[in-house]
Write a structure and sequence with these properties.
By secondary structure, the protein is an alpha/beta fold. 51% of the residues lie in helices and 11% in strands. The relative contact order is 0.11.
């Protein structure tokens, strides 16, 4: 409908200009929007205020001229000028309700737009080190990043989902040495007559004793954990999963590596443990319905090609060629980040020849821009200070304004209102995989997307699991299931038959081929139509502002509008409750349109739309 109204306004503007009532000027955007108050019409245009300077006329005069020359159209009940120059359009009942038909006929293409114009855009998110399981903070990025990608795709972008594997650097060696130490401790305990399972239990009990003994008053209860920490000066990966990985290597290798050098043992466990953790991360992401197109290894940036250079070498050579590198007196290599507004220059290679993380990021982002047109990185808020240096190097390499960062806040985990303690001493956090198992992917994803990335989330496990209307995801899903039940009854099929037919076919049988939407005159029907019509504009705004959280608010509002409608309007005839057949079919069409939009909205945030609850 906005497209049709824009045609009418442009025709009126041209007519007014042709007779000299308005001077010649052109306006690109007619400024159509949905008034917040339905008493101000179904659609409103701000074209008069947008063109006042161009026309050197008062907005009200421009608006009145447009309305005076507006072509007649059967969809319009009336058009009014309001306030300083708003043009408010009121649709007749059938036209206002036409959104129900549009939704049903558009199918999955409803609320799909072309604002992205096929632009290749990459979203990189999660990107946790492959040295441990994902936690709920990573889970928020998985839910948010994937939902953002879904929205961008619906808005017409060609989207690539990427996970950057931080598999180069000292953390990988620490990971390998951590497994190695636990491996030797397991062998030691097994040498005392314990089975592998008993040795694992002993180490885990030792760790629990260490965690409980916060004052280190009873070191005799946790000698193995103390020895583990002392071996690495506290710089180790101490979670239970390290003991589990060590046990897997005991099961596969026995004591074959006990006599190897520490470095040999570390290298073996590092590489094999890395593959195991990466596979675990992939599986967790898949359980969260977050699958990536590209898994990019940091190591690949340092691999030498046929010419003897690596991607890092070539990226730094490019910056040097452009005149943005210099060496200090000690021999360290620096990037002139201050040339692009950064508060200081940034080191790329230290005086000892070691590459910094920034050197990897330089090569990585240069690689990205040779594959895509625009890059979005999702980072934690604690990385805010890192943004400017990456923006600077992207600009230096010739990609200004093509890189952006979406920052996100933390997730507070609670259970029944009580914070779940995260202990650095314990060396572990609640694994995202465990949370998905307990809460389920639907409730987890919905809750992690439901707030702006700029807001912290309180994730209360018990509240999120609750199966009642106090839980937003349950409330929305129940609305969808309730609609499916209505359509099944109208079509005369049970749940099993509906599952075989598919709900689209059930709805076709229930609604029929011919229905008159002009019969829908109840205020709740009008409100439902207006809410459905909001989604296309909402999707575009979510894509533009990188704000998929708005979809959860919309889903809850739409579910509320449906429940209000269903409370006020009888949809199908029942015993002692007759209903005109034409009105029933029209209301069933409205109900089906609501079902489709609820499912589509939930799908964009990675949540299922159940047919039965």
């Amino acid at each position: 409908m906005p497209e049709k109204l824009e045609e009418l306004v442009r025709a009126a503007l041209a007519a007014a200009q042709s007779v000299g009532e308005l001077p010649e000027f052109d306006v690109a955007d007619m400024g159509f929007e949905r008034p917040a108050d339905s008493s101000n019409g179904d659609w409103s245009s701000t074209v008069a205020m947008r063109s006042a300077r161009l026309a050197h006329c008062a907005p009200a005069k421009i608006a009145q001229a447009i309305v005076a020359h507006l072509p007649e159209d059967p969809a319009l009940a009336k058009v009014e000028v309001a306030g300083p120059g708003f043009i408010n359009f009121y649709l007749n009942t059938a036209s206002a309700n036409d959104i129900f038909r549009v939704v049903r006929e558009s199918g999955d293409d409803f609320a799909r737009s072309d604002i992205g114009a096929g632009k290749k855009i990459q979203v990189e998110f999660v990107s946790a080190n492959p040295v441990g399981p994902l936690h709920i903070g990573h889970g928020r990025w998985a839910a948010l990043g994937d939902s953002l990608c879904n929205v961008l795709e619906r808005a017409g972008y060609d989207v690539e989902r990427e996970y950057y594997i931080n598999d180069h650097g000292s953390q990988m060696d620490v990971f390998g040495y951590s497994i190695s130490k636990r491996y030797l401790q397991l062998l030691e305990l097994m040498g005392e007559g314990k089975s592998c399972e008993e040795a694992v239990a002993a180490l885990l009990a030792d760790r629990e004793a260490y965690v409980a003994d916060e004052e280190d008053a009873h070191p005799e209860t946790h000698p193995y954990t103390d020895a583990f920490n002392e071996a690495f000066g506290g710089n180790a990966y101490a979670g239970d999963y390290i003991v589990d990985l060590a046990a897997r290597f005991v099961a596969s290798d026995g004591d074959a590596l006990a006599g190897a050098t520490e470095d040999e043992r570390c290298a073996s466990f590092r590489e094999r443990g890395y593959k195991m953790m990466l596979e675990s991360i992939r599986e967790t992401c898949h359980k969260a319905r977050c699958d990536f197109d590209v898994w990019f290894s940091e190591r690949s940036l340092y691999e030498k090609g046929p010419d003897g250079t690596s991607a890092v070498d070539r990226a730094l050579a490019k910056l040097d060629e452009l005149g943005y590198l210099f060496r200090d007196e000690a021999g360290a290599l620096w990037f002139r980040s201050t040339d692009f507004g950064d508060d200081k220059d940034r080191v790329l290679i230290k005086t000892n020849g070691e590459y910094t993380y920034f050197a990897s990021d330089v090569a990585y982002h240069w690689n990205k821009f040779r594959r895509v047109d625009h890059v979005i990185d999702l980072w934690g808020a604690d990385h805010h200070g890192y943004i400017k240096r990456i923006q600077s190097v992207c600009e230096a390499l010739g990609y200004p304004d093509q890189f952006e960062v979406v920052l996100g806040q933390l997730v507070n985990l609670l259970r029944d209102g009580v914070p779940v303690r995260m202990s650095k001493r314990k060396g572990t956090m609640v694994a995202f995989d465990e949370l998905l198992e307990e809460v389920g992917a639907d409730a987890t994803r919905y809750t992690l997307v439901a707030k702006s990335n700029n807001q912290m989330i309180d994730f209360d496990i018990e509240a999120v699991k609750r199966q009642d209307n106090t839980n937003p995801v349950y409330y929305v899903q129940y609305a969808h299931a309730r609609i499916c039940s209505i359509l099944r009854r109208a079509a005369g099929v049970d749940a099993d038959e509906a599952a075989k037919l598919g709900m689209d076919e059930v709805a076709r049988r229930a609604v029929g081929e011919d229905y008159d939407l002009g019969l829908l005159t109840d205020p709740t029907e009008a409100a439902l139509a207006r809410k459905l019509a909001e989604l296309p504009g909402l999707v575009d705004s979510c894509a533009r502002d990188r704000a998929p959280f708005r979809l959860t608010h919309y889903a809850e509002d739409l579910a509320g509008h449906f429940h209000s409608f269903y409370a006020a309007c009888q949809v199908i005839p029942g015993a002692g409750r007759p209903l005109d057949g034409g009105l029933s079919h029209a209301r069933l069409a409205a109900v089906d349109a609501c079902r489709r939009v609820l499912a589509l909205t939930l799908n964009m945030i990675g949540v299922t739309a159940p047919q039965v609850m």
